[in-house]
């Protein structure tokens, strides 16, 4: 009578488990690569239908071959460029609109932060100092660099060193206003009521985010699944990234305003 060897069963089970783990890791890596690939094509202004075709072709190849995307296609950024897909015509008016709305929101954020201090201290007046005006001017100047910086930050989201260098560069650019505030920045130019200014700043901060969100929802260039004509949604991570980028100034402004009241010395 033949008997089975328990060691053989253990070896077979461990091999099967190892294969399943390797397959799960491959699928996870490929899904992340496809997300990166989709983002890169978006940054290149490729139409949604063309993105759908490219992503579907890559997904089908990976499914049939059982290969890893990085090994087959290389980096998502390089492969997106190599495909040389047609791009949407440049909409200069749209670019100006994005710059304008971001600028308005940024002004609201800066001014709201300045009004939080006197309001937290129970002071009805806001003393407009020289360093505030200079800081606002530098902020608007840096705003002109945002269209380029945003694309770099999106591509570098998984590279902390690159993000750190960008942040360090922006911080270095703010040394001038800091030095000015130390020497002459406390000079008061005028005094204005703090509460109405805070309300106006809050509106300036909130309105662009609402406008951009509505505009994005109404004018989506959807990614179309080839063959079915159905629109495919990006992954949850990509959607969260888009929403977060739109509302980050509002969230930051709200948290800063609340923390100023909570941590003010007299409180």
TrEMBL record:
Protein name as it appears in the record: Uncharacterized protein
Q: Where are the transmembrane segments?
A: 98-117, 129-150, 162-184, 190-211, 240-264
Which organism is this protein's natural source? Cryobacterium flavum
Q: Which UniProt keywords apply?
A: Membrane, Transmembrane, Transmembrane helix
